[in-house]
Amino acid sequence: MISNRDDLRRQLAAAGIKPTFQRTIILEAVQGRNGHPAVRDLHQRLVRDAPTLSKTTLYSTLELFARKGLIAALYIDPAEVRFDGLPGPHHHFACTACGRILDIDIACATGQCGRIHGHRIDEVHGYFKGLCRDCLAAGRVPRAPSVPRHKSPRRKSHA
Amino acid sequence: MISNRDDLRRQLAAAGIKPTFQRTIILEAVQGRNGHPAVRDLHQRLVRDAPTLSKTTLYSTLELFARKGLIAALYIDPAEVRFDGLPGPHHHFACTACGRILDIDIACATGQCGRIHGHRIDEVHGYFKGLCRDCLAAGRVPRAPSVPRHKSPRRKSHA
DNA sequence: GTATATGCAAAGAATTTGCACTATG
DNA sequence: CATAGTGCAAATTCTTTGCATATAC
């Protein structure tokens, strides 16, 4: 909580982004170590501070942040995009019992090299699935059997 | 093409799945090395053999196959689930220019261990993003800037 | 004042669900 | 006939798009 709003506004300005009130609190929410929120989560959390905040603004702002490298979008949960305040390259762990997505402070060495089989590597994405420490201890079991599903998109999307 | 329909039916039976005509041709299509098809691709391709084949059947069948371990679902493309005939654990490469998803015959050593930070690892997922060899040679550039998007889902989905 | 940001409402699309029909033994 | 598989149609909901309004420099 030391990093106040002014700090965030500075971050935005440094990225060439006009630091509006909405953008400031959105960045704050994604960077705050509150897991890896989806748009739905962010909206629920932020309407308290900004009652008129729309999902449209959330979508466009988060896309902007991702494009500028301030945050990263995670496609681990097939049901919705999750966002990551990313300090640097790292992996993730998705618990099939509690549904949380945790940061894993390792980066696969394999991906470090800039080229594999002749392909130029720009991004490395890695995540694990299983039961987190807490759920193991509590004896919880996976909810949905590890059978993936997706959601419904649009036309663009190619990333 | 050597592995005929009887072979596929045997695979299905071995997995405890009743080998209907639809299931047979669906498995054939996913295993056939035609990239990593989405439901849309499979439907377009298979209606030629089975004009009444519905997307509903595709969805339920693919989920069944994934649950039984015959195939794997890939969530790399935020716009739609892709399916993989999977021979074993491997990574993937998504080209941001041509949109193809290629198999990468490596498996991150980090993920092999059954436990990380106390979490039990059941699945390891890794993929790279960049420009594939062909697109590099052809001088093609990324389509959408590496800004992710998703699609629209349902309520379940937790895997 | 002009460009940019925000937001409401409506559209778009992958995926799911309900139910009726068909096939199999 | 009873069980399981298939498919049409309707529903669901994330994400996008089109303006209209509000804000910022």
Topology overview:
The structure is a homodimer of 159-residue chains.
Chain A lengths: L4 H10 L6 H11 L7 H8 L8 H14 L3 E3 L7 E3 L6 E5 L5 E4 L10 E2 L2 E13 L1 H6 L21
Parallel strand pairs in A: 3-6
Antiparallel strand pairs in A: 1-2, 3-4, 5-6
The structure holds a DNA duplex (25 and 25 nucleotides).
Written account of the structure:
Two copies of one chain form a homodimer. Chain A is of the alpha+beta class and 159 residues long. The first copy, chain A, folds into two domains: 5-74, Arc Repressor Mutant, subunit A (Orthogonal Bundle); 89-138, Dna Ligase, domain 1 (2-Layer Sandwich), CATH 3.30.1490. Chain A is built from five helices and six strands, in the order ααααββββββα. In chain A, strand 3 and strand 4 (101-104) form a beta hairpin. In chain A, helix 1 (5-14) crosses helix 2 (21-31) and helix 2 (21-31) packs across helix 4. Chain A is globular. Mean pLDDT of chain A is 84; it is low at 146-150 and 152-159. At the A-B interface, helix 4, strand 3 and strand 6 of A face helix 4, strand 3 and strand 6 of B. Strand 6 of chain A pairs antiparallel with strand 6 of chain B, so a sheet runs across the interface. The structure holds a DNA duplex (25 and 25 nucleotides).
Keywords:
6 strands, disordered C terminus, 159 residues, two-stranded antiparallel sheet, 5 helices, Arc Repressor Mutant, subunit A, Dna Ligase, domain 1, DNA-binding, 2 domains, alpha+beta, homodimer
Radius of gyration of chain A: 17 Å
Q: How far is the first residue's CA from the last residue's CA of chain A?
A: 33 Å
Hey, roughly how much beta strand do the residues of chain A contain?
15-25%
Name of the CATH superfamily of the largest domain in chain A: Winged helix-like DNA-binding domain superfamily/Winged helix DNA-binding domain
User: What's the CATH architecture of the largest domain in chain A?
Assistant: Orthogonal Bundle
SSE succession of chain A: HHHHEEEEEEH
Mean pLDDT reading of chain A: 84
Helix content of chain A: 25-40%
The biggest sheet of chain A amounts to: 4 strands, mixed
* Low-pLDDT residue intervals, each spanning 5 or more residues of chain A: 146-150, 152-159
Using the alpha-carbon principal axes, give the shape of chain A.
Answer: globular
For the largest beta sheet of chain A, what order do the strands appear in spatially?
Answer: 4-3-6-5
Number of domains of chain A: 2
Q: Quote the CATH topology of the largest domain in chain A.
A: Arc Repressor Mutant, subunit A
Instruction: Report the top-level CATH class of the largest domain in chain A.
Output: Mainly Alpha
Tell me which oligomeric state these chains represent: homodimer
